[in-house]
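Worked example 3 (structure in, sequence out).
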């Protein structure tokens, strides 16, 4: 597809609508509002992918490498059918193709930075006066691509903060936390690219994933190398079709075959709620206790339906002394025992574990950890399968992302511009003029209406200019910035 089609229809003739003599448009990308309580900083991630994939790869393959007559004909045919014959002219397409690169400069904070709400993450401006129109022409595809990795990276980081908080409080194994939130979201995402971007964002904070393409994504676009570093891992695991095929009457036989014959050592995760989860916990697992304890590895039990808080921690409204009342962790501890952390919290025997992979949210994760703590169990007794219930129940408005122009040059004169709708609640008020980002006490803040000299200082650094990625970052560097 011709890359000039990657925009909203209303933008195709904005170049004629700007004042005559417009030479430069300067815009910024900013999270304007948090709709998740307690989150006041947003993790910046995804721009390097956008630059490599769209501004370099796609524009080269689908625009600059084609003949001028071909790309102009493609674009003209699309727009004439869309807006009508003669609606716009096309000399700007010929001029851009003749130039041979995108005359754009992007300045950004380092990816992995935690950027406060209402502070810009990056700026975009044209570098050649003739192409002032290109800045906000790119807004649509840029917004479409960037909001999700930033949002998923932010939510993933919140999981990391919750899990480390309770690991410290209950004395669990800190080295286990990177594997304690496992990405199960692939099948629920709105397309492969979304799954890769969101899955990669998850891996900024954790190492557990079932989204294999996210690993390829990080190798291709963020300098990762699975041969030399841990990017993402998983374990052998069953699904309901496996358990069903073994039949309900022989479910315990399926468990036995899996842990003794198919996977006699190592970690294996077995979905356990195909029929009666509590029967598995109270009958089958005790019957297989000796075989589980004799394995060189861990058998992970996976409930996958019901209320995760009640399944894991127990239902206080259930009859006392029932497995439903106790919850899965307590039941498993009664069967296998375990040890206590230095802070006096119980930890399951290392041969047995638990993962819950359905309907996990930040709130439920916190509730589960808090209830386990109140019951005397370390938070690291459970792994959370974080799926599309977390990563798909979001929108661009979750953090109010927007790209807005705040400065321009007309006939050689700079103009500070801004929007401030009287009918708005304040969310849509933009910065004004050129901006500068500074860092004090480990917090980023923004100053607007600065001079050109001041704009060239501060945290914003050029990462792309005139068709070239000028500064790159790696997965390791981003992970280091997000370490807790």
């Amino acid at each position: 597809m011709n890359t000039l089609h990657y925009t909203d229809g209303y933008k195709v003739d904005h170049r004629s609508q700007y004042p005559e003599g417009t030479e430069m448009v300067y815009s910024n990308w900013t999270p304007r509002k948090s709709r998740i309580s307690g989150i006041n900083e947003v993790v910046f991630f995804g721009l390097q992918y956008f630059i490599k994939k769209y501004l370099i790869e796609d524009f080269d393959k689908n625009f600059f490498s084609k003949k001028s007559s071909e790309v102009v004909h493609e674009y003209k045919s699309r727009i004439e059918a869309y807006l009508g014959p003669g609606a716009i002219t096309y000399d700007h397409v010929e001029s851009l193709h003749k130039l041979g690169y995108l005359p754009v400069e992007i300045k950004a904070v380092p990816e992995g930075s935690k950027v406060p709400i209402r502070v810009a993450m990056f700026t975009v401006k044209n570098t050649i006066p003739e192409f002032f129109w290109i800045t906000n022409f790119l807004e649509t595809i840029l917004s479409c691509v960037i909001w999700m990795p930033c949002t998923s990276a932010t939510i993933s980081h919140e999981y990391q903060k919750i899990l480390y908080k309770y690991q410290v409080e209950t004395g669990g194994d800190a080295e286990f936390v990177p594997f304690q939130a496992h990405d199960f979201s692939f099948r629920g995402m709105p397309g492969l690219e979304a799954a890769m971007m969101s899955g990669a964002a998850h891996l900024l904070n954790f190492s557990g994933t079932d989204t294999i393409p996210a690993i390829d994504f990080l190798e291709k676009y963020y300098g990762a190398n699975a041969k030399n570093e841990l990017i993402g891992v998983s374990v052998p695991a069953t699904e309901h079709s496996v358990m069903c095929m073994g039949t309900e009457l022989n479910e315990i036989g399926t468990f036995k075959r899996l842990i003794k014959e198919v996977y006699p050592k190592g970690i294996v995760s077995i979905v356990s709620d195909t029929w009666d989860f509590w029967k598995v916990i109270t009958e089958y697992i005790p019957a297989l206790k000796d075989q589980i304890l004799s394995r060189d590895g861990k058998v992970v039990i996976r409930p996958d339906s019901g209320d995760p808080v009640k399944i894991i921690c127990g239902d206080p409204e259930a009859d006392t002394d029932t497995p439903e009342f106790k919850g899965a962790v307590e039941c498993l501890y009664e069967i296998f025992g375990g040890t206590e952390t230095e802070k006096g919290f119980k930890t399951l025997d290392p041969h047995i574990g638990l993962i819950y992979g359905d309907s996990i949210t930040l709130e439920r994760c916190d509730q589960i950890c808090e209830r386990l703590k109140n019951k005397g169990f370390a938070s690291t007794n459970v792994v959370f399968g974080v799926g599309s219930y977390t990563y798909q129940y979001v929108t661009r408005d979750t953090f109010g992302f927007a790209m807005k122009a705040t400065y321009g040059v007309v006939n050689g004169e700079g103009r500070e511009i801004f929007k401030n709708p009287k009918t708005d609640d304040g969310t849509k008020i933009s910065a004004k003029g050129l901006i500068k980002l500074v860092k004090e006490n480990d917090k980023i803040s923004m100053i607007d209406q600065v001079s050109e000299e001041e704009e060239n200082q501060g945290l914003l650094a050029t990462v792309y200019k005139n068709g070239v990625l000028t500064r790159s970052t790696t997965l390791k560097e981003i992970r280091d910035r997000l370490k807790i």
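Notes: The mean pLDDT is 97. The longest strand covers residues 22-31.
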